[in-house]
Design a protein that fits this description.
alpha+beta, four-stranded antiparallel β-sheet, 4 helices
Length: 120
């Protein structure tokens, strides 16, 4: 599943220029984002841990558990992102089961990736 396809028609998408920050580690979480176009870097502790491309979920962890952001996200190229509020997220979980499964898969992939990096 590519979530970018669900949101490609969003008229109120967030636009970022290269080098612009979407959010910082420690920021309060309000929404998550789906990267519709462009590339963004996920930075933890000053280290780029992932370069995200179209379809990537950003900020989902903080939205799910209502905790501060654990990473900083910076646009590597010009980006267009769909903004997902908690209300919209809950609607998607109820109405689009594949979206829920996709979010879980992303969380698992990121956890496994961090575990692999820690084991080195």
């Amino acid at each position: 599943m590519n979530p970018a396809l669900l949101f490609r028609q969003d008229a109120d998408a967030v636009q970022l220029q290269p080098g612009q920050t979407l959010f910082h580690a420690g920021d309060p979480a309000t929404d998550m984002f789906v990267l519709l176009e462009g590339e963004a870097e996920i930075i933890v502790g000053g280290t780029v841990v992932e370069t995200s491309v179209s379809g990537a979920l950003l900020g989902e962890m903080a939205l799910i558990d209502n905790s501060p952001r654990t990473a900083t996200v910076v646009a590597k190229t010009a980006c267009r992102l769909a903004q997902i509020s908690p209300k919209r997220f809950n609607f998607l979980v109820q109405q689009t089961p594949y979206f829920s499964i996709h979010v879980m898969k992303v969380l698992v992939e990121r956890l496994r990736g961090m575990n692999e990096r820690m084991a080195k």
